[in-house]
């Protein structure tokens, strides 16, 4: 309550009148004029009425105390029953705060950013955003409902978001334990066949078991090693990159009884294999028009080291020319097919026939080379159907088709078989989608009996033209015509000889993208894309296993012949497993070393320093069995003492002005009565 003035005349005029009245009153009092005192009172009352004093009274309303409750909904909260604890604790907090009408709670739900590839729990940032419109004096405290895994902690000595008690209610169970494995250092690229070094580490969070962990290492789904890793120590590992393209390395540690979750017991690393100087041995038989087709293709690839021999003079050919006058290079059979055969990634026989250049035993060496993982391509001509065909040597044990002895000389359009339309070697070749195909004709094919493997291209009357087959650990391809060079020369418009030849060679050298039966997956941002290649029927749905452990079945949609896909945007991030039948693959969505996956145990240690600084409380919401929430203690003024059993909330003293009530002191009948009384008294005194 206060008094203010709203004068009817300007203050300078009132001041002049007050001075004149003061002089007149002083003169009257000194001279002893009768009624001088009453005249002074009357003048003072008149001046007061002209000044118009007002009695002011403010109408204020008490403001509520704001208490934000920051609820952690990150991925680490979705396991080990923490979600249920969070929901129950939140309901309990709301019920308890509802008993205090002057306390206003704000529920702040904090989940992973769906657009980030590096998920983390950012509770303090969410608290700052939620209280940005609230004056600091109105915030009575903050409650964090979390597992304690917070990744935007400010420095304890820095200025905090709020100047009020901070309380932490921790979900999870006391004394939790979790084991996880992490790739510490690993190369992104590696030369195929060369040894690479990497380092991994096993962590025991919460407590140490003191036990050495067995880490199983898989490369492209096949187990390659088992390591003994001491928790907390770096474990080196040496490996060899088996193939070109992406190679998926998986490290898994056995689940320990009682640990929080097993979803972080696996880690994955993708290393791209780079083939350095691919070594290809091309052996040409009798010279022919298409002899240079394979040579030109292989020589155009800078990553290929080509060794090419053309057999021009077999041993049985004798024309009397002295050896020292021959300019031909003797065929180094022993060096190539005995001593260094394992150095070659691919061997090509182009219209080659057995002419006693290679001893019979060497064909057996070639067969062993293929069975041990090598690659062989037979580009057959008429010789393959003759008596001296290499199919009549020990090489026959690995060839997928045996010649019948017939050679068909008739124009035909090479066509894709039903399997060829699905096989990645021939699928989508330019011009294959028309009938007849939009490429030139060939005019010769070698007839074979029922071939093994996959016949992906057909000659006239449905005869096999291109046969692909796996033999033990190696691969064999047979191109049953020597007229592919017509495409290279542009005959009748030519054809996709470069694509076809290159795909055949890369399939033989086990390029992952050309596997006819494969399941691959990749992550593009937060989107998981999976592709299933097959030359069979519809492979059925795929199953996605999420980092949280839950599974989901999704349909594979046909994207082309032999090609099925699905795309799904993931709310979670981490290591996903996609399975379809007997095939499975792993893919990591989001950054591999994201903070959200580094630790999964619940902890009170992260919030304890902030609670200590602000006189707050950190406690668990469960004692292992029952839900237990602390009581609420509202206090006024500064919080000086930390309560170990109750959450202290500082009540605000701030108010909001709703209106002002004004009462004129010398207006109306009250002011008129005072003036009349003063004048009447003065008149009465002077009349005596």
From TrEMBL:
- Superkingdom as given in the UniProt entry: Bacteria
**Is the keyword rRNA-binding in the record?**
no
Please give the InterPro entries that the UniProt record associates with this protein.
Class_I_gatase-like
List membrane-spanning regions.
6-24, 663-684
Protein keywords: Membrane, Transmembrane, Transmembrane helix
**What is the protein name for this chain?**
Membrane protein
Organism expressing this protein natively:
Pseudorhizobium halotolerans
